[in-house]
Amino acid sequence: QALLARLAQSVALTAFLPLIGSELADSAHAEMRAWLAEDLGAEHVEAPPHVSRPAAPGVAPSAVSAQPTAALAHLQRSLFQPSPGHAPDDGSGSVHLLSSPDPAREVRAAARACLRWAEAGMPFHEMAIAYRNEDPYRALIESVFREAGIPVYLHAGTPLSERPLGRRASALVRLAGSDLERRAVMELLTDSDLPDELVGRHGGRIPAARWDALSRKAGIVAGIEQWSERLRLLRERDAELGAKAERRGEETPPWLAGRLESIDRLGAFVRELDELLQRRPRKAPFAEHLAYVRELLTTYIREPKPILEALEPLARLDALARPIPFERFREIVLDTIESVRSERALDAYTGAFGRRGVNALDINSLRHLRFAGVIVLGLAERSFPPPPRQDALLLDEERSRLSAEQGWRLPLRALGADVEPLGFALAVQAAEERVQLSYARTQAGEGRAQLPSSLFRAAAEALTGQAVRADALDRADGLPESVFTRELAGRVGPALAEDALTAGEYDRALLENNRPLGAMMLARRPEHERGVRAWRQRWHETALTPFDGVLGPAAETALAAHRKLSGPLSPTALETYATCPMRFFLERVLGLERVEEPEELTTIDPRTRGSLVHRILERFLSELGDDDQPRPERRITQLAHLDRIAREECDSVEAQGLTGFPLVWRYERQAILEDLRTWYEHELKAPERFPRGAHELGFGFGGETGGGAELAIADPLRVPVGEAELRVRGFIDRLDWDPASKHFRVTDYKAGKRTKGRNGNPLKDGELNGGRALQLPLYLLAGARALGLDPERGEARYSFVSRSGGFADVCFEGAAYGERRVELEQVLEVLGSEMRAGNFHARPGKNSSNCSYCDFDSLCDARRETLLTRKQDDPQARALAALEEIE
């Protein structure tokens, strides 16, 4: 006002105020009009003649009239008024309130509105979409409108960092000066289009997925030392697998040779990358830093010219600033990439403000502008309007004190007048023909419910003439369908097929709105026929089908030829099949395994811990020499020897990156050492001792393995089951025997909790547990065959080497084998016959107990218990269920 008064003293002043049709603007400008008339002595306030917007080609002038309809004019005039009255129903649909399930569908509804308006003759460049919060709406508008083929002008633009080129450059710059984190390196490889020279130098196409899997398997987290050492250890382990195959007289598997080559290529790539990253200047002028970044980008990114052009002006800062550390320069580069808009850098303009494409802009940029149609997004509570916040630089308390002391009128931010309603009112005033106001009932990526904001309810009150509660508004109480729409969250397409943005949406809308037509359309697609057949066989038949995992006789020949089923099976594999055939199929036949992320490993995995304890005991027992078992008279020496071996093996596992967080591993490591000492004391107190022993005795692997050469068994254990036989192979942890008494004992060490038997109780001596405890009786037979002794003169036992297992022993004595031989053969016959028949259906067990620790839980149908109950009378389901009765 002071500026205008000063100007009016020397020049003729003309003031232009917003208008609604032929009337003066709303009361928000009444104060300005009064001041102009009273203080400046304005002679008169008049409205200019109405100017219509030119019609688009082929569109009648009336269709694009700038005159607002009665409903829109009423909303603009009555918004935030105490007694607005009911809006006239002019049938034009000029005002629309929308409740969407989520922001993505809210933006899709906005795109549909733009298409409807365009069909009525409104040009795209005369439409505006306004939002209060850029995230998530800007990105959603860009993707949805591009998918629908609608040109759009993004006033905020798209950051270059959201484009592939920007992501690659940012990932590479972040690596410089970092600790060479595995995830960052894999992100660079996965997203990058590497230059041909670099690809050729490293042996051709970069297998990013394979390198990612190898780096995870190696347990790499960060640091060039980890990359070098753990890749070396992984290569040594793989090379040892090849050496074992050669010792067994087998050829090295082709996949193993390919993996060794991939490890070498990955190691060379990482070393070259680290060498260039380490050449960065520590502290230097901008130009020197920029030269290094240019070398980095041109080496690892194809065509980085747009990025380099955006960074080039940084070299001029040498005239103003002193040398800076590279870490600071790196942040400047990342901020620059973030600030550059891809439309300018990549010449990817899709629209121009007010001339081409729908205008998408911030709500504050909409002030004092006019568009034929306006859509306002995100009118949810605590989003638009947002919660009031203090000014970080000048708090409200300081503003109040300055105003009191200086006589100023500084507006308060958190405690003062809310400026958000004015921005919303001006957005509504910007619409000349149509306006759509919408909110999302849930946040993006979250399930938490959101309510319509006070601004959205104020618009509803201006249309209905009465107060509107948030819950009533969500139920559409009191609002006509022509004004308010509540989109259903359960729909997979638009309410009307003609409103579809894509061909896929059109098909989904047909399926929901016209089921006979949709069914006829889909019936012509072979994939639909297969899907319907699978659904019916899975849910409407009481017999197990291929869609339940029962592959049937037709698959018997193919499965019999499978190398993992045609060869000998381990007792653990048989136990897995007895527990859940589907788990056996996924793990043993398809070879699937859980993806382990080294960065997310907090503590040592139970399987890794078990392997660690087995290696420690194998080394300890095999290095005892003629003793073959702990001796009381050598307690101190042997205990020190056990402790040394345990520490060496723990160091080896830690070097492989398999132990998780250092602090947690420190306590886990100490627990393992203490458990081993306690096991040793238990061994010293064992009443029965055998003069001879062997360790890690392998049978069924086709070569000489094991701790006793005279006991090495090349052929698998053959167990007769009915008219066929079952071939078994495995490793016996420890075999002790007495040549004089002809007695022997097989020991299998367990490093975890005590095995559960039926009904969740601990496994008892001599139990078969419905086929889930086969290891002891089969190892008993293998030990008897190796020694040439009667199985009934021996025993097999689980020895728990952990406090969680209580250092207990679970035994299967030879006498139990004699009593339960028929039942054992019955269990093995059922397992073998069902496996050969291709029966791999899921068996969740009681209350899904089998699924609690299964790696493949997410791959199974969540309704597997319901399915199994529905088909429990199938003969193949009953065959495996009958095993539950065998203890």
Describe this structure in words.
By secondary structure, the chain is of the alpha/beta class. About 45% of the residues lie in helices and about 10% in strands. It is built from 33 helices and 18 strands. A seven-stranded parallel beta sheet has the order 5-8-4-9-10-3-11, with helices on both faces. The protein has a five-stranded mixed beta sheet with strand order 12-15-16-17-18, with helices on both faces. A two-stranded antiparallel ribbon has the order 1-2. A hairpin with a 4-residue loop joins β15 and β16. α6 (about 165-175) runs antiparallel to α7 (about 180-190), α27 (about 605-620) packs across α28 (about 635-655) and α28 (about 635-655) packs antiparallel against α29. The model is unreliable at about 20-25, about 50-65 and about 705-710 (pLDDT under 50).
Q: Could you give a short description of this structure?
A:
The protein is α/β, with parallel strands linked by helices and about 900 residues long. It is elongated.
List the helices and strands and how they pair.
Layout lengths: L1 H7 L10 E2 L2 E2 L5 H9 L31 H9 L16 E6 L2 H17 L7 E5 L2 H15 L3 E3 L9 H12 L6 H10 L4 H6 L6 H10 L6 H24 L6 H25 L4 E2 L1 H15 L4 H7 L12 E2 H14 L2 H4 L12 E5 L8 E7 L18 H11 L13 H10 L1 E10 L13 H11 L5 H5 L9 E3 L16 H11 L1 H9 L2 H14 L16 H5 L2 H4 L4 H9 L1 H9 L16 H17 L12 H21 L6 H23 L7 E8 L17 E5 L2 E5 L1 E9 L4 E8 L24 H13 L6 E7 L8 E5 H23 L27 H7 L4 H7 L6
Parallel strand pairs: 3-10, 3-11, 4-8, 4-9, 5-8, 9-10, 16-17
Antiparallel strand pairs: 1-2, 6-7, 12-15, 13-14, 15-16, 17-18
